[in-house]
Design brief:
The structure is a homodimer. By secondary structure, chain A is of the alpha/beta class. The first copy, chain A, folds into two domains: 4-119 and 301-312, Nucleotidyltransferase, domain 5 (2-Layer Sandwich), CATH 3.30.420.40; 130-296, ATPase, nucleotide binding domain (Nucleotidyltransferase, domain 5, 2-Layer Sandwich), CATH 3.30.420. Chain A is 39% helix and 20% strand. Chain A has helices spanning 37-40, 43-58, 95-102, 113-124, 185-188, 190-203, 207-212, 218-226, 230-254, 270-283, 302-312; strands spanning 4-10, 14-21, 26-33, 65-72, 81-82, 93-94, 108-112, 133-138, 142-148, 151-152, 258-262, 292-295. Chain A has a five-stranded mixed beta sheet with strand order 3-2-1-4-7. The first copy, chain A, has a five-stranded mixed beta sheet with strand order 10-9-8-11-12, sandwiched between helices. In chain A, a hairpin with a 4-residue loop joins β2 (14-21) and β3 (26-33). Chain A is globular, with a radius of gyration of 20 Å. Chains A and B meet through β9 and α9 of A and β9 and α9 of B.
Chain lengths: 313, 313
């Protein structure tokens, strides 16, 4: 009987591997290094070796494995084709076929890391109990994942949920990493909040903010805002305004039951959520106004859970 | 054998009924009046009578009818509950159950009119051949429908595809019909284009535009723009700019293969499409840039086709 599966989250520096029972219980989790040299040619082989060792150690046969779910840092089409995982050095190929061929023909399902993290949160995290959620990950960049009826919405080119690159501001002079100007990521990511803070500091004299100077972080801004610092509150509201409006755009398109906010920036917690909610409720179509907004709960394990969910759910 | 179905599009003044073979062929189509008095209590009975007469006239038995698809002007949940069809005078009830009970227990599937029109265009119109489309209907208001894997995306409260109420402009002083300020509908509907034109005329002296004065229509604006009138071109670009940006928001969320633009305003044709495409390509996430943009093809029949598709497809 097929009782187990693997959930794997491949990042640019480490690969997280989870060994699951098919009821969703995590039996073990560990990390290996992502070897990106030579166009990442060792990555899949390293994964196979890790899985193989695990099975030997546990005395579990291949017949007992339902499959392998894998989350990857790049667009993944519905058929398992990765278009380009820049951080891994990979080009375009069908990763589901390839990994399956390399690992005894076992079923493999692949997804984009942000989408897979969303699926993880929908399954076991902040989105538990909801069928339709949108997850927004506020980290160095802004990622997103759309879950409809418990499944990832991939989009035609794997671009669904790429809300970090939603155009939020005309006339922005600085360029986003994607090459455009005025993307959500430029205001709502950790680096985005720092940009907003520096702009504020250049235009206003705020003693507390200025103490941090060039080295100010998003966390500093939120901490000061919580203490009641006016400048920091203004910056937080600017950020929340961009994010809340982006959420209202998303809601007018897919009308989710809940938004789940994760990533490092979300550590600002309920304070940030409240600011974001204000703009969301003010700008969203009324029928979408009762969408819940929760913090993510699985942290860095979301992708590992979501990858397992690709197989189990 | 079940060979036939009905596709019904219920509007505030008329009800369009299509009699289909299950291969998609339209055998007949006709209209009846929508009797909205007494909270629209006659509407379903009138429909039943029309269908009954048709079956008698054609000598077709109930056993040969696969089902009835019905599009309605208001939110419809996945289980067939209408939340409120203001234009019909209806409150909240399960229209699928009710109509089925009234018509010999035959299967009924209901959908929101804009969503159903989108399904119709995806099946037999401008979106034929695509699985994932977003339809945008530019009429008196702006409606939308999202089709994923050939199926309507309803959203949690039936609010998916309500893109007419996507917040596009901060600081808008006039109120949208929905009660908010700055919705897409305020700039991209027929009345929205007129608003933009009046604002332009108030701020600029343009002989050609001024000839139309208070009675200017969206069509007048587009006709003048096609003739090269500078003011009309500016207004058209403003409108196209709002719509193109809204499309880029939609794309960052669901990444469709194609956008289908319909409704009275879309009669401006390829000229308008080109203007909209320019903004879309400039603001969308690059992976979404190759989405096709087509004009709708079914006109007022889109809802009737889409309703039939609820049953057949």
């Amino acid at each position: 009987m097929k009782e187990y599966c693997f959930g794997i989250d491949v990042g640019g520096t480490t690969i997280k591997i989870g060994f699951f029972k098919n009821n969703g219980e995590v039996l073990d989790k560990w990390e290996i290094t992502t070897r990106t040299e030579n166009f990442g040619e060792n990555i899949l082989a390293d994964i196979c070796e890790a899985l193989e060792s695990k099975l030997v150690k546990e005395g579990i046969s291949l017949d007992e494995i339902e499959g392998i779910g894998i989350g990857l840092p790049g667009p993944v089409l519905a058929d398992g084709t990765v278009l380009q995982c820049v951080n891994l050095g990979w080009g375009t190929f069908n990763v589901e076929q390839k990994l399956s061929e390399m690992f005894h023909g076992i079923k493999v399902k692949a997804g984009n890391d942000a989408n897979v993290a969303a699926l993880g949160e929908a399954w076991k995290g902040g989105g538990k109990g909801y069928d339709d959620i949108v997850m927004i990950t506020l980290g160095t960049g802004v990622g997103g994942g759309v879950i409809i009826n418990g499944k990832i919405l991939t989009g035609y080119n794997g671009g669904a949920g790429e809300i970090g690159h939603m155009h939020m501001q005309d006339g922005e002079e600085e360029q986003c990493n994607c090459g455009r100007h005025g993307c959500l990521e430029q205001y709502a990511s950790a680096t985005g909040v720092v940009r907003l803070a520096k702009r504020y500091m250049a235009a206003h004299s705020d003693e507390k903010l200025n103490e941090f100077g060039e080295n100010i972080t998003a966390k500093d801004v939120f901490d000061l805002a919580k203490e009641g610092n006016e400048g920091a509150i203004t910056i937080t509201k600017q950020m929340g305004n961009y994010l809340g409006k982006a959420m209202s755009h998303i809601a007018a398109t897919v009308n989710p039951q809940a938004f789940i906010i994760g990533g490092g920036v979300s550590k600002a917690g309920s304070y940030l959520i409240d600011v974001v909610k204000d703009t969301y409720r003010e700008t969203c179509f009324s029928a979408c106004g009762d969408a819940a907004v929760h913090l993510a709960e699985l942290g860095n394990d979301a992708g590992m859970f979501g990858s397992a969910a690709l197989i189990i759910k």
